Amino acid sequence: MSVANPILEIDGLSMVFGGLRAIDDVSLHIREGEICALIGPNGAGKTTIFNCITGVYKPTEGRVTIRRGGGQREAIQGLKPNVINRKGLARTFQNIRLFGNMTVLENVMIGRHNALAAGVIRAIARDAATRDEEARLIDDCRRILVKMKLDPFINETARNLPYGAQRRLEIARALATDPFLLLLDEPVAGMNPHETKELEETIDLIRDEEKVTILLIEHDMSLVMNVSERIYVLDYGRLIAEGTPEEIKGNPEVIRAYLGE
Amino acid sequence: MERNKLLRDLRSSAIIAAWFSVLLFPLLVMKVSVTGGQALVRFRWERLPAIAVAAFVLSFAWRRALEWNEARGDKPSGSGPIAALTVKARSALALRPIRLTATLVLLAVAAAYPFALGMYHTNIMITALIYVILALGLNLVVGLGGLLNLGYAAFFAVGAYTYGLLWKYAGPAFVSAGLDPGWLFWIALPTAGVLAAIFGALLSLPVLRLRGDYLAIITLAFGEIVRMVLQNSGEVTGGATGISLIPRPWFFGLRLPPRQAATYIYYIAVALVALTVFVVRRIEDSRVGRALEAMREDEIACEAMGVDLVRNKLITFSLGAFWAGIAGVLLAAQTTYINPDSFTLWESITVLMAVVIGGTGSIPGAIGGALLLKLLPEYFRPLAQYRMLIYGIAMILVIIFKPDGLLPRNRKKYTFDGSPSAVGAPVAAGDQEARR
């Protein structure tokens, strides 16, 4: 399968838990600069695919390769999550996983962990370079927070944020790691229509201004149909359809998967 | 409503009093004395009302305290006279001149201590300061990294034995070369720190994937293994008899009399405590410290944000162990004698207790907790046989009434004060920890 500019390719991916084949021979690809959605009924294996891509699980079979900026293809399956993150894949979580007792600013600062270099010795010495680095860090983080419209909450403790803001903070934290591909796991779950609309704009903005490709899992069909250019549909761990929102809407297999016979 | 509660409490306390009277009857009222092959039971009835009254009063007080605590829990913690006072003290300490004065006063008190109170108190203080260093080190592991470590005494032992063994094996060579063996202290100090840190890294490798109770069990086992190895490799470490006649630290070639030596070691201990506080504060407030904190909050999210957990845990255990090593050398120098019995599980638990009672994660808390736990028993010697009982009660009281510890952590938060020109000044106004 040769596609123009695939920055992520999944080839024959399977994940077996004991006797359960959670993902069965899934192949898909993400092109540079697109917004792609992964949908499917509950338990279809969407989050499992995310976990395989980001290193939380080691896939049983198959390959996951990335290609950043037209460079060499690189296999990443089986690497550790922090290594994969360093290679430019960042994610959010379905059940929000913020650092609850830290401030909004600090959450984003953790995202920039690998953009800094100071180790223990430099932390103790606190030389000019380290102080400079910290100053720049705060500056960078603030810029990200402004972009995500989180700057009013900047000094707030993360767990005290309204639900919608917590979801956005997860995205901000992921963006802080300088990814080329952002994986969003149900970014609007639990949001009201107004918040959903806002996030829709944010997702477009991230793609257009930050030049970050986006793969998202979502159950909110209005969001999926509005923002995504291509959709993959998963059912019982198998890929059952792929196409533009229009094609997916009319696909009988998809309708069957969602509504039954 | 309030009346009903009161009546209910009174009734429950009365039941408790009756129950305790029955329960303690055979223990405190009956007395069997055997004389001439005849058992004679004597009833000391006069004790019964005392038991009942004591049980009633204690039970009632406990119930009221719990209710008071529950009612208090609804209010934000920032209310009440004590909280207001701490806030005031903290904002005062944020001002540079006040902070400077406070530090100077503290230093002056610390400097005058051995002269004002004499050798006995100085020696007690040295022991307490050793525990302060231990608590500060463990606080990095437990408070900042969130990794429970019950084998902390092992690193303490590594430090002490580094000095002890250095003396045992390199000491004679030193003496025959005409050098003062007191120099060994200054060689042992950094060596012990580094060695303990290496041991910390070694321990961190097998426990990388463990959390909570599993981590506690493995670290506990590690601590016991180290102690057992020290105890059973007699030809190298002296076994259960340990190593004695360890020299005191070098002081310009002078052989100090015990009193002066204690004062000297006291000053070294104070300096080391200051160094520990300085380093721990710097680490907390840095990229490394933030990563440790994030790891404690959520390991999965932390790893997904690119933080290397393996490295993080290695750093945590090593940093914590480093200070235990330093404290170990001090202990060996102060007591001039070490054996494996000084490094039992009980030592680890005492240090952990100091951290928890003081306030997990809090530097003033660790200092206060260690001082409290080491100084009070010394000055209440007559109550020594009840020490465990008092520790237990204190622990229960702290956990119920002050779960964050006596001097809870007031984390320095990275904040942004709004004006873009101030970017680069990540210093929070007024919410820094009181500088020691």
What does this entry look like structurally?
The complex is a heterodimer of chains A (261) and B (436). Chain A is of the alpha/beta class and 261 residues long. Chain A contains ten helices and ten strands. With 436 residues, chain B is mainly α. Chain B folds into two domains: 2-67, no CATH class; 113-401, no CATH class. Chain B has a two-stranded antiparallel ribbon with strand order 1-2.
Describe the secondary-structure layout.
The complex is a heterodimer of chains A (261) and B (436).
Chain A: E1 6-17, E2 20-31, E3 35-39, H1 46-53, E4 61-66, E5 74-75, H2 81-86, E6 89-91, H3 104-111, H4 120-125, H5 128-147, H6 163-175, E7 181-185, H7 193-210, E8 213-217, H8 221-227, E9 230-235, E10 238-243, H9 245-250, H10 252-259
Parallel strand pairs in A: 3-8, 3-9, 6-7, 7-8
Antiparallel strand pairs in A: 1-2, 1-4, 4-5, 9-10
Helix pairs in contact in A: 3-6
Chain B: H1 2-29, E1 30-35, E2 38-43, H2 47-73, H3 81-93, H4 96-144, H5 152-176, H6 183-204, H7 212-232, H8 234-237, H9 258-284, H10 287-297, H11 299-304, H12 309-335, H13 345-358, H14 363-379, H15 387-401
Antiparallel strand pairs in B: 1-2
